[in-house]
Amino acid sequence: MAGAKTRTITVTGTGSAEAPPDLLTISVGVECRRDSVGAAYAAAGTASAAVSGVLRQYGVGDADIRTTGLNVRPELIWRDGEGQKVAGYVASSMLTVRLRQMGAASTVIADVVEAGGDDVRLNGLELGFTDESAVMSRAREAAWQDAAAAAEQFASLASARLGAVVSVAEHPLSSGPVPVARLERAVATDAISVEAGHSSVSASVTVVWELQA
After folding, report:
1. Is pLDDT of 81 > 80?
2. Which of 114, 123, 199, 203 allows an S-S link to 139, with CB 3.0 to 4.6 Å?
3. Which residues have a Cβ under 8 Å from the Cβ of 104 and sit 6 or more positions away?
4. Which is more confidently placed, 168 or 101?
5. Mean pLDDT, the chain, as a whole number?
6. Strands (E), the chain
7. Which of these, 150, 126, 130, 146, lies nearest to 138 by C-alpha position?
8. What percent of the chain has pLDDT over 90?
């Protein structure tokens, strides 16, 4: 009948895809306690330079080494009858480093820790992809298939069939747990090995279909 309203069905599908990561991002810090501000700052600079030097020896480029934190503060203690006193000064800095040679990651991290000595802090690591477009493409395909399967089922339950696609909208997903490498130590004197495993990328899509009798 002319003017009849077109029936539609709207379904949201989700999907994910996994692949071996080819990028490891580590957060390396140094923290130095000394009696004076100048001594603490100088010690932090020396330790940070040692860490950066090791990274460059392994071919890590300037674009993959970024300073993300720098701080100098007094270290305060409380003494009865005297109140707060300055016991020394703490200087700290933070580097965010991208390692693109996954096979050498364990050795690089071990040498970085050795170069920084007792002042170094390893604050975490993240696995990811240099270019995640191929993995994301598979995740989108899985999300589409999920939406299409649900739409087919709903259409069947409504004694109808799917027609043309009216619209498609992709939704950004909130960040879930960051994939973290598994750490294993064979013996006490060995470097901790980084086992990359697989990292996952997820996608979500909402599709509107026409419903035909």
Report:
1. no
2. 203
3. 58
4. 168
5. 86
6. 8-19, 23-34, 65-79, 83-99, 120-128, 161-171, 182-184, 193-195, 199-212
7. 146
8. 62
The residue whose two tokens read 């003017």 is 3
112's enclosing H/E stretch is helix 105-116
**Using CA of residue 50, residue 54, residue 57, residue 63, what is the dihedral sign?**
negative
- For 32-76, write each residue's pLDDT tens digit: 999 999 999 999 999 999 999 999 999 999 999 999 889 999 988
Choose which CATH entry (3.30.110.170, 3.80.30.20, 3.90.1170.20, 2.60.40.1930) describes domain 8-20+132-212: 3.30.110.170
The sign of the torsion formed by the CA atoms of 139, 140, 141, 146 equals positive
